[in-house]
Amino acid sequence: MTDPQLATALIHHPYRAPAEWDAIPTGVFKASTVFFPNVAAMRERRWIDKSAYTYGLKGTPTTFTLEARLATLEGAEHLMLVPSGLAAIMLIDLAVLKTGDAVLLPDNAYGPSMSLAQHELRHWGITHQVYDPMDVASLSAALTPATRLVWLEAAGSVTMEFPDLRALIRCVRREAPQALIAIDHTWGAGLAFKPFALGAGDEDLAVDFTAHALTKYPSGGGDVLLGSVGCRDRRLHDQLAWCHARLGLGVGVDDVAAVLRGLPTLPLRYAAQDQAARRIASWAQGRAEVARVLHPALPDSPGHAHWAALCTQAAGIFSIEMQPGYSQAQVDAFVDALKLFRIGWSWAGPVSLVVPYEVSTMRRLPTPYRGALVRLCIGLEDVDDLIADLDQALARLSD
Ligand SMILES: *Cc1c(COP(=O)(O)O)cnc(C)c1O
């Protein structure tokens, strides 16, 4: 071949960077197309066990690296990235459930997970039942031969109950051996407890799947939407991986790099936000405006004994039940008066967040709460400044 023209030379260039590059960050490898040296390699390469690259959607060095590190964090054998925490929940539902199956959700499940069951899953002929996560008999009563998937969540969404995970898993294994168990592992973040190693002593007690909103702790920056699904079993992994491939659940590699950057500080941030949240929760307990503080590390919080049996750490998130005498408008005014706590969804970033909830409208089973709930997610600000902010906003309630 004669020397190529410039347009061609700028694309098909002979220079190859040396292979020995080694540095702290993982390379940000971007590609849809991945080249094969020859047709035989194209036919032979396997993406499903991550032994090779075939196409950007099926993995890059950047995504495989984060997947391997997160598998270590969670104690999973296999792990797959998806575009959000909710997509992780969806992938498990879609990979496992078919028409005629039933899925069980705790009454305090992450709201959009419940909504998926109420809409798309129902339209596809998949039924769902709700159980009380604090009552193993309620789970037992909801299990049927059609139950194919049971969701767990610890701590529960907004009301922060910590269930007896061991008892719930034992109940499913004993009474519905055909069912698989998935946990929304966002709160625990791979640190508070190990969902694939829950047995006391040498008992093998584990969930089948973890769904994790990397959007929260692993990112820690409030700038990424990403999720993951972990599992132990090779066959279940392949089932998930094929469903993942057919759904085309690609992730942006810049987001993956952002989580790789945040991961080394994950244990430090988790511990710092835990300590800060516990100080603020204890302070809130002493306030006359507050009826109850819902934080699993507090002795009178629902499921505290179950938390204590499994964990020493907790996520930096809790809810306060306001005295029932306050109207929703007064509680909203308290939330509006906060200056450092910003009103917004998500959590585990640098900024403390607040959301008021009318919990009676969110649950199907009766709840014991009479006052409005306010959820506080503790960021990385100075704790005394956060307490002063809550103090000045609570003062509005007596205006
Ligand atoms: C935020 C969250 C999710 C969903 O994560 P996204 O990335 O926002 O979709 C799922 N479960 C829990 C417990 C969460 O807090």
TrEMBL record:
Pfam families: Cys_Met_Meta_PP. InterPro entries: Cys/Met-Metab_PyrdxlP-dep_enz, Cys_b_lyase_bac, PyrdxlP-dep_Trfase, PyrdxlP-dep_Trfase_major, PyrdxlP-dep_Trfase_small. It catalyses: L,L-cystathionine + H2O = L-homocysteine + pyruvate + NH4(+). The modification N6-(pyridoxal phosphate)lysine is found at K216. One of its GO terms (biological process) is transsulfuration. One of its GO terms (molecular function) is cysteine-S-conjugate beta-lyase activity. Its cofactor is pyridoxal 5'-phosphate. Keywords: Lyase, Pyridoxal phosphate. Belongs to the trans-sulfuration enzymes family. This is Cys/Met metabolism pyridoxal-phosphate-dependent protein.
